[in-house]
Design goal:
Elements lengths: L8 H11 L2 H29 L8 E2 L2 E2 L2 H18 L2 H4 L2 H16 L1 H6 L7 H47 L10
Antiparallel strand pairs: 1-2
Helix pairs in contact: 1-7, 2-5, 2-7, 3-5
């Protein structure tokens, strides 16, 4: 028997806006974008390496275009906005999302940037780097989201308690019987 109640999107939205200040919201969006982008890039690059799926390497003039290039371009755009943009544009959620995604694209190929050799798929370290960066991304996302998650857990606990109280008044279980 499960007593988990679904969390309505409106409750998540309300907790996000009431529990996090503007800077915390930007940090959370950046971490979520980093985590999602890193996971997507890992999936895509593994599928390219395995020759499966619709994705292929991009090349121009016979040279492979690494995805850190797109990340550097995105960071340049975010930086230009930070230096020259109006305050309302700098604080737009798309800036935080772009920043996190750009960092993931760059960090995913950091070894290539560090020694300027394409050691991207060397067995030594590839799995540990994937796990280390992926773990860091998940931890950062969780820590940035903690105030929102704590509020949602409190509200869910209150909803479960209220549901049990109403059911007890009527002499029935608040949860459907398990099969």
């Amino acid at each position: 028997m499960s007593n988990a109640l679904p969390v309505p999107p409106a409750a998540v939205r309300t907790a996000y806006h009431e529990e996090l200040d503007e800077g915390q919201r930007s940090a959370l969006l950046s971490w979520l974008a980093f985590t999602g982008t890193f996971a997507a890039v890992r999936s895509i690059t593994y599928s390219i390496r395995a020759g499966r799926g619709p994705f292929r390497n991009l090349s121009a003039g016979g040279e492979h275009l690494h995805h850190y290039l797109w990340g550097i371009g995105m960071l340049a755009g975010v930086g230009a906005l930070a230096v020259h943009g109006e305050d309302r544009h700098r604080r737009h959620p798309a800036v935080a999302l772009s920043y996190g995604a750009a960092l993931a694209l760059i960090i995913d190929e950091f070894a290539l940037l560090l020694d300027l050799k394409d050691v991207y798929w060397a067995k030594e370290g590839r799995l540990s780097v994937d796990l280390g960066v992926g773990g860091s991304a998940l931890a950062g996302s969780y820590l940035a989201a903690r105030p929102v998650l704590h509020r949602l857990a409190r509200e869910r606990g209150q909803a479960v308690a209220a549901s049990k109280a109403v059911a007890a008044e009527h002499g029935r279980s608040p949860f459907p019987a398990s099969r």
